[in-house]
Amino acid sequence: MTGASSGLGRAVSLNAALYGAKVVLIARDSERLRLVREALPGEGHSWFSFDLQHVDAIPVLLSNVVATAGRPRALVHCAGICIQQPLRFIDQDSLQKTMRVNVESAFFLTQAIRHKQIRGERMSIVLVASVAAMLGSSSLATYCASKGALVAGMKAMAEELARDKIRINCVAPGCFQSDMLQQLGGSVGGKHLESLQAKHPLGLGTPDDVSHACLFLISHLSSWITGSTLVVDGGYSACK
């Protein structure tokens, strides 16, 4: 579970543990990871402090995961960043950072976890994208581009991975209560957030709303689903 120290990653971890899974938590903040680990029900959970910008070290990370917790049967990649910048202010550093965290980390995690020495049986991978991949949003061009690349890349990888009985899908959330949304609200103001909420017929979601979709896609209930994007947005895209 990447991005496990807060928000959606934390919610998926807690709900997976409630269903009896042994969860491996991955994020940068070791103190917050420790607190999430203490909150998980059950035994056998572990955590690793790791910055996914260091994509070259991902194979070593997964080898350490296997040595500590055994071969994983699922990966939910929740880690991501959102930098709000109008087009005229986009610079190379922010674009590269967004792509590295949101796209490159997903590609290299998937590449590394495919190895026979790493993957468990009937592996399922869920990459957290966004409805922004399909719809776009003003001042979020780099974020939208990164999530669009994630969805397109997932489709291309699905056929290759199926040969190894590995499923891969995306979940594309709308806006839900999260640290990322609070940061966005701090930069654009409360009125913008109120307008955004009004565009979701069912209102803004919660991390649990999205985590349930992630759990479905890693469970046996979705055993014949791969290469798909599950939109979980409270009706936002239907009314866009």
From TrEMBL:
For this protein, the record's Pfam families field holds: adh_short_C2
Q: Which GO terms describe its molecular function?
A: oxidoreductase activity, acting on the CH-OH group of donors, NAD or NADP as acceptor
Q: Which domain of life is it from?
A: Bacteria
Q: Which InterPro entries match?
A: NAD(P)-bd_dom_sf (IPR036291), SDR_fam (IPR002347)
Q: What is the lineage of its organism?
A: Bacteria, Pseudomonadati, Thermodesulfobacteriota, Desulfovibrionia, Desulfovibrionales
**PANTHER family registered for this protein in UniProt:** SHORT-CHAIN DEHYDROGENASES/REDUCTASES FAMILY MEMBER (PTHR42760)
**Record-given protein name:** SDR family oxidoreductase
Give the record's family classification.
Belongs to the short-chain dehydrogenases/reductases (SDR) family.
